[in-house]
Amino acid sequence: MGRIFENPAVIIVLIIVVVLLFAAPKLPGMARSLGQSMRIIKSEVKEMKNDGREDKPAPAPEAPVEGKIVNNPAQPGSTPGDGTGTGTGAQS
Question: Which ranges does the record mark as transmembrane (predicted)?
């Protein structure tokens, strides 16, 4: 029994046989997740390389929107201009 561990090739073959016998149903899923992880790493590395150099100009900011405050007429005791409205935006 002591001669099995003298040759590393025998140990490697035994490990491969054990893995194939006991983990065969899980191998496709493990290979799929490994491939997916490699694609993610590849895209992240590519993004890191292009991170510092942006050739396209920054998008122009949108024009400001002007709004009016609208009072809720359903509230009792509300008078025009008392600031209890539900609208948002700047007063005009």
Answer: 6-24
